[in-house]
Amino acid sequence: MATSSVSKGCFVFKPDFKKRKISVPIEEYFNKGKNESEDSKLRFETYQLIWQQMKYETEQLQEELNKNLFDSLIKFLQKCHSGFQNNSRDWGYQIKLREIPTAALILGVNVTDHDLTFRSLTETLQNNVTPYIVSLQARDCPDMKHFLQKMFSQLVDCCVDVESKEEEKDVQKKTHCSMDSLSSWYINVTQKTDPGKPGKKRNSSQCQPPPVVLILKDLESFTTKALQDFIIISSQHLHEFPLILIFGIATSPVIIHRLLPHAVSSLLCIEIFQSLSCKQHLTTVLDKLLLTTQFPFKLSEKVLQILTNIFLCYDFSIQNFIKGLQLSLLEHFYSQPLSVLCCNLSEAKRRITFLSDNQCENIRRLPSFRRYVEKQAAEKQVALLTNEKFLKEETQSLLENLHVYHTNYFLVLRCLHQFTSSLPKYPLGRQIRELYCTCLEKNVWDSEEYVSALQLLRMLAKDELMTILQKCFDILKSSSEKQLGGTAKRIEELLAQFQSPDEVKEEEDASGSQSKGLQKTDLYHLQKSLLEMRELRRSGKKQTKFEILREKVVSFIDNLVREYLLPPETQPLHEVVYFTAAHTLHQHLNAAPRMALHTALNNPYHYLKNEALKSEEGCIPNVAPDICIAYKLHLECSRLINLVDWSEAFATVVTAAEKMDANSITSEERNEVIHARFIRAVSELELLGFIKPTKRKTDHVARLTWGGC
């Protein structure tokens, strides 16, 4: 850009705001390069719809799980608030008045979920207890001065009156923050507030000024001195500044006594509140999102195992698990063209009628569909491979069968879990997610754990069997689907047989005979009695009615499992709803930054996709970025790298095959430019941790990485 000025100077040219970068719609990313799909927009809309439904379900679930905890906290805060207003002159009460009411909120080690919990808690307290809510973190409060400043600034923001808020902000800048100034501010604000003026809904009496609730989100990270000083000073001002503390604790309540000596902790009136366990929360989320026919999207065994392993072995974070689930959903709709049919059954049937020829060919290419075609008669095979109309009708039927399969699958899975979750040593897992992963992986009846579980079921008592059967009956009856109506009727018949008078008598006789055979005795006689009982069973002793009924129940459950708990891979078109790309998900979630950095520096074409950067193995292209050239040269060096030799090698690579005009730039100036580029590349490598200066030789640097990464 030229100027008309003839004098030397610095000119600033503002960018043209009319030329703005055109943003690409998000749905366009669903097009894979040149292979654009005609329904990419529809797939993206379907993804958004399913994810919004899942997100809403998780939010509702979070509210339900937090409801009991928040209700208990609100009752505690309201009780403490009413205590502040009591003007009793009792000596014991006056002593207790100096104790700060404190709620120790045990949230668990899933620290990444704490922000969401505290956000919901703050909103709930503002609507029900007090508008004066302060949330502080340890990084903002290194000492008492910053502690009070942060607290005062947030209290001013909580002020309902906008004009007074601006005035208090000006006052805060001019005055030094102290507990006396906080108390004076609180008295002035509560006196100005009109009790009759309608405001936010609060359960406390309108004539009583609301308390100040201070939430310390990460108690373990607070400095001991700042926390002790604040508690001691606050306890002296409770009569004029009603303060209630909420400690956010990730470990255990013992941390309070480790941070605070007895003289300080005795100033706190502590009550402990325990949140729901992370594992229980995960089980509830899986039950609502995956173990249901409400959402058509499903995860394969390997994908679910990756997400649960990250949860159990790394962070215990429900939010990160849900983000991984969202990534799986997005990747499924991005990589699978037939995911357009991953919606509710009626909508999927409607979309099948509008499938294009390419989409019909995609259906024929599915491995599960090809296996299904091979099992059909010759005439039907020809029709499925040549007739588009017949293919669409068969696809509708197969998707309906897949829906029925999932309905029966989850009902029988829950029934099997009721039988196995109370067995000793939990051969099939204590949580339903463990049983679900086993059933997804293979035929569960072929595993040794399943055989062991059946053997343990054959030893259950009558009361235990009846309780489990009643739970299974309730599960089947609670379902709106009627596919397993005959199964519920059969369970009802078994329960009626157990409750018959003859069976009760037989059971008493059997239990009496067993008790006689297993009387209290020494080890030798006990072993002898057990061997005799085993020989009697082998010799064909007649079974009691209870034993016969118990065997019927075990056989009945075994038949249900073999009929309905088939792995998803056995179902045609399971690829439409199941996300199986475990390797892709693992790359995204379990990133290896060191290997990625080595790949980027050693082979920049891998990420930049510039054809000029392609090179043979061991060659260094001179058009590569400077840091890549310096990195590949440093891989050829030993533990100590001579900077002079490194610089000369760098200049040789950079100037190789260059065609530069001799009149445009002198050799000396060119060397200075190359030297500057080399210094910058070395500085970047040092910043990334590949090299470091060494005192052994001033013109050398030490190499820090080996093995090519």
Please describe the structure with a list of short key phrases separated by commas or semicolons.
709 residues; alpha/beta; three-stranded antiparallel β-sheet; 30 helices; 6% strand
Overview of this structure, please?
This protein has 709 residues and is of the alpha/beta class. Helix content is 58%, strand content 6%. The chain has helices spanning 40-84, 91-97, 114-128, 144-158, 162-174, 179-192, 224-236, 254-259, 262-265, 278-289, 301-315, 318-335, 345-352, 357-365, 367-374, 378-386, 388-420, 432-441, 448-457, 462-478, 485-498, 501-517, 523-538, 545-564, 582-589, 593-602, 605-608, 626-634, 643-655, 667-688, and strands at 100-106, 133-136, 212-216, 243-249, 268-274, 298-299, 578-579, 640-642, 691-693, 700-703. The strands form three sheets. Strands 2-3-4-1-5 form a five-stranded parallel beta sheet, sandwiched between helices. The chain is globular.
